[in-house]
Amino acid sequence: MKKFTTLAATVLLSTSLAASDLETVNERSSYYFGLDLGSNLAQQIGTERVDIEALMMGLQDGLDEAEPRLSMDEIRDAVMALQQELQSEMEEQSASLREPGDAFLAENAERDEVVVTDSGLQYEIMEESGSDVSPTASDTVRVHYHGTLVDGTVFDSSVDRGDPVEFPLDGVIPGWTEGVQLMAEGDRYRFFIPPDLAYRDQAVGDIPPFSVLIFEVELLEVM
């Protein structure tokens, strides 16, 4: 980051255009193009990988329609090497993020009261009502639920709000769709949902990427 910002400052200082001089349409739109390009590069590959001098050289050559200083083979090899490096870093980061949840699920699966389905969903029955009314994936259900991460952090709870929720079972995460179909009206289950049956690598609200989700669910009614 320091290298990038220092070099960027050097380039900016070498120009005569100050922020207060951005008055014309061309000046302001050109500034936006540069801002957008810089933001995208920072998000996609990280500022530490951007050589601002080489970037400005390529930008200038492109604007001048000059002969590229590198062959297409050299450019392709460099881009492929960068993509492989980024992919390796993403895989390492993903493995690191998944590790606590994987360890939790492996240990949890050894508990006698826990059932593991073919998909990897884990659940335990907390209370059975004796009802024979169970939902299908196309049904809408009314439930109370309390959702936590493996460290106990509460990320959502209709119980805490005191307000049951209605939703179609085919419109929620796969772990819910599968799990709630195992229940009958009046039952209470606890589900341990692997990230592949939840939000995978996406951060959603207070839920980090690759999170195992724990839900205590009471099925109040099949609509």
TrEMBL record:
Q: Does Cell wall biogenesis/degradation count among this protein's keywords?
A: no
Report which superkingdom the organism of origin falls in: Bacteria
**Keyword terms:** Isomerase, Rotamase, Signal
Gene Ontology molecular function? peptidyl-prolyl cis-trans isomerase activity
Decide whether keyword Signal is in the record.
yes
Q: Name one Pfam family in it.
A: FKBP_C
The record's similarity note reads:
Belongs to the FKBP-type PPIase family.
Q: Which reaction does it catalyse?
A: [protein]-peptidylproline (omega=180) = [protein]-peptidylproline (omega=0)
The name of this protein is Peptidyl-prolyl cis-trans isomerase
